[in-house]
């Protein structure tokens, strides 16, 4: 089923000025779903899922958070935090005229979705959480992102050099996920350092107490053998959220390369959120 796709933009104000954020809409109607990307990745990573959801009648929006994709990329680390990202999602809903949405995402996007549920619970119809980064990911996260921050801050020619090499490659001639990888490598050292610094030294996610107070229904997807996004974090989150369903992915690649099973779970969950305001707790295999 073909669905309409439209690119839009809106602006957010901060103490340092006015920044532009870009998004893509898929489909139409009042059953809104917002999908958020992983750290340093573009919103286009969720294009396949967005199309699958929109084909079932949902109105899906993918957003490039500040510092990512085609949105503005200021080089001020004070502009980057989970709270700021959560506020950008609320600003998107305001811009779209959407009273509520199912909000979800991967990795960084999962944590931002939790932030939205804390700062604006009345706007969240449900949560679609893949690979949250919580307590069990601390050490692996430091090992993964500390070298990136060091390179971007003190060896900027390495980041900018990779950008110069990868940017000219036409995305249309490479497989979809290779294109996403190339887009992720398309970074400026100054803004990349600011994003990683702002998140590295800020709070990663709402506290356990705040998470336990989230009443929105949630679908939590965890992956085995993923140190940066350990399955233990996803399982812990599913235990904390009062109305959560946990789905165990077969691997980190399943939703990327063999998406049918998880797409069906996401579609069923999102449609269910718009049919009923609450779901009872259960576990899926």
From TrEMBL:
The record's Gene3D superfamilies line, in alphabetical order, gives: alpha/beta hydrolase
The AB hydrolase-1 domain extends over 32-136
Could you list the residue ranges forming a coiled coil in this record? none
Q: Name one GO molecular function term.
A: catalytic activity
Report TM segments: none
- Which PANTHER family would you find in this protein's record? HYDROLASE, ALPHA/BETA FOLD FAMILY PROTEIN, NON-HEME CHLOROPEROXIDASE-RELATED
Q: What is this protein called?
A: Pimeloyl-ACP methyl ester carboxylesterase
User: Could you tell me which species this protein originates from?
Assistant: Nocardioides szechwanensis
């Amino acid at each position: 089923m073909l669905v309409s796709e439209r690119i839009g933009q809106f602006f957010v104000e901060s103490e340092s000025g006015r920044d532009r954020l870009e998004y893509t809409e898929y489909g139409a109607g009042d059953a809104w779903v917002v999908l958020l990307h992983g750290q340093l990745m573009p919103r286009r990573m969720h294009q396949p899922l967005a199309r699958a959801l929109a084909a079932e009648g949902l109105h899906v929006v993918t957003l490039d958070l500040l510092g990512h994709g085609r949105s503005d990329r200021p080089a001020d680390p004070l502009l980057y935090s989970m709270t700021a990202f959560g506020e950008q999602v609320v600003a998107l809903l305001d811009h779209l005229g959407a009273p509520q949405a199912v909000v979800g995402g991967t990795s960084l996007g999962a944590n931002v979705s939790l932030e939205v549920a804390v700062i604006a619970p009345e706007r969240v119809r449900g949560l679609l959480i893949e690979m949250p980064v919580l307590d069990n990911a601390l050490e692996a996260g430091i090992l993964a992102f500390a070298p990136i921050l060091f390179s971007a801050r003190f060896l900027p020619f390495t980041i900018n050099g990779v950008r110069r090499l990868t940017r000219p490659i036409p995305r249309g001639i490479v497989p979809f996920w290779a294109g996403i990888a190339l887009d992720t490598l398309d970074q400026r050292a100054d803004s990349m350092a600011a994003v990683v610094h702002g998140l590295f030294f800020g709070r990663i996610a709402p506290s356990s107490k705040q998470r336990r107070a989230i009443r929105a229904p949630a679908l939590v997807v965890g992956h085995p053998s993923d140190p940066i996004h350990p399955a233990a974090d996803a399982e812990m989150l599913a235990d904390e959220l009062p109305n959560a369903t946990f789905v165990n992915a077969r691997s980190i690649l399943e939703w990327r390369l063999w998406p049918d099973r998880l797409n069906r779970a996401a579609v069923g969950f999102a449609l269910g959120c718009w049919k009923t305001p609450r779901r009872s707790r259960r576990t899926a295999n």
